[in-house]
Amino acid sequence: MHTVFSTDGIHPHNTFRRWREVLGDQLVPAEMRSVGDAPFQGRIQASTIGPMAVTEIANGAMRTESTADHIRRSGRDDQVVAVMRLSGGSACQQGDRETVFGAGDLVVFDPRPGVSEAQAGCSLIVTLPRERFEALLGPSRLYTALTVGADLASTTLASTFIQELVRVGDRLTSDAAARMALIGTDLIVASLAERMAQGVPRSIHGTVTVQRAKAYVEANLSDPNLDPRQLAAAMGLSLRRLQELFHERGRHISDYIWERRLEAAAQRVADPACAHVSIGTLAYDCGFASQAHFARRFKQHHGMPPREYRIASLLNGRGGGSDL
Which of 76, 94, 159, 207 could form a disulfide with 145 if both were Cys (CB 3.0 to 4.6 A apart)? Predict the structure, then answer.
């Protein structure tokens, strides 16, 4: 991480004014005020891993309020922000939900007005594409300002992964950084999905369950044994009940699993960074038991065999030569 701003060396009368200016540029403009009588101290560090922007903020106690006008001026309504509290605590309100969270907890906020009061401490703030979250979890209002506790193993896993990713980020190639950022995003999604399954209103329980199932599929695509029965067991449901939930949304479980495998395989086949990897290896990595089965399914879904798809992708400018 590189240091964006520090109050060290700034006259105490000017520290919070400068802090407010820099933090507004780095994240979202907002009304901010220092809380307490002690001179304000803070530090902002930042890192970018692929499409993921990570900001570490260490600050004194402060209150922040974002209005609709602030958010509109920021031009960031296509993003969500995941806050991982490393020390201290915060109380926040967004929409009709209020939350209190402390060290080890995770909370996601979407681009809507909100208010927060933070104790002195440190947080990791991860800016992520809103589209990915809504594709897997549904509308952001379902999980914004929902505390995902440190007691969940998935929360610890997501937080640890992001911190380690920041530590080694400058040693990753651009392609590797993009893939690792996607893994980090999906770990946060999986943590949210697990939390949403705890005590949600019954009217949205079916939607949450299906989104949890989809997140599980994403995390286990490489498992050749992943099938509707295993997925139902992982969700703690009977196969019949999970099938009903998918059917209510116009999907079949097995079709969804195969579609996600084929889409993931197509991304890897077309990825220049995977050009040296054999088609068979890519097939196995995406959960296919045999290359023949993979080739047949791939052609049915994408209109051409995987080798032709790879060549066409490379010739269209997405990569150089490959070991075919």
Answer: 94
Q: What angle do CA 11, 17, 21 make, to 5 degrees?
A: 125
d(CA 80, CA 315): 35
- Give Cα 39 distance to the centre of its chain: 35
Give the ranges where 99-173 is alpha helix by DSSP (H). 130-137, 153-168
102's tokens: 């402390």
Position 166: which residue type?
A: V
The bridge status of strand 31-34 relative to strand 2-6 is unpaired
Q: What length does the chain have?
A: 324
CB 269 within 8 A of CB 282: yes
User: Does pTM top 0.70 for this prediction?
Assistant: no
Q: DSSP state, 14?
A: T
Token pair listed for 92: 């926040």
Q: What is the pLDDT of residues 85-126, one digit of tens each?
A: 999 999 998 877 888 999 999 999 988 888 999 999 999 999
Q: Which of 139, 138, 187 is nearest to 163 (CA)?
A: 187
Instruction: Quickly list DSSP for 20-79.
Output: HHHHHHHS---EEEE-SSSPP-EEEEEEEETTEEEEEEEE-SEEEEE-HHHHHHHT-TTE
For 222, other C-beta atoms within 10 Å of its C-beta total 13
